[in-house]
Amino acid sequence: MLFVEERKTVCIIDDDPNILEIYGTKLGNEGFEIITATDGEEGLVIIKSHCPNIILLDIMMPKKDGIGVLEELKNDTALAKIPVIILSNVSDNEIVKKVGEFSTHFYIIKSLTTPQKLAGLVKEALANQE
Hints:
Layout: E1 9-13, H1 17-29, E2 33-37, H2 40-50, E3 54-57, H3 66-74, E4 84-88, H4 93-99, E5 106-109, H5 115-129
Parallel strand pairs: 1-2, 1-3, 3-4, 4-5
Helix pairs in contact: 1-5, 2-3
């Protein structure tokens, strides 16, 4: 009997279609199932319906920003356990401090990382969950 490991699901929430495509393609090629959202409200709906293994979350988005998403995740015991990697170009100290109040795994500045590096961080965060 052959045992096939279930693919891990990555939810990418970002309002930049290029980011969704670049990181979605890279992570998909790494064997992950990818689900995406273009704002925080849509992201929360997707998270609640799909319960992904990990979330990549932008901070500055329309409708509901990344901080709002983090607040809602924290208040839902089932969703609070999902690892979150912040993927943003915001390096403002106040926002970084605010994000630090939540259980995020990494705070990645988009312009300073590569798809390969991000894929490694996703794998690292997931390995720490097991």
